[in-house]
Amino acid sequence: MNKDWNHLTQLIVAWQQGDQLAEQQLYQLCYLKLRAIAHAALAKSQHKFGHNNTVLSKAMLDTHALVNEAYIKLAQCHSLELKNRKQFFLLVAKITQQILVDNARAMKTDKRAAANPSPQLECLDIDHFLSAAKLLEVFEYHYPRQAKALKLKYFSGLKLDEISSLMSCSKSLVQKDIHFSKAWLNASLPQN
Question: Model-level pTM greater than 0.90?
Answer without folding.
Answer: no
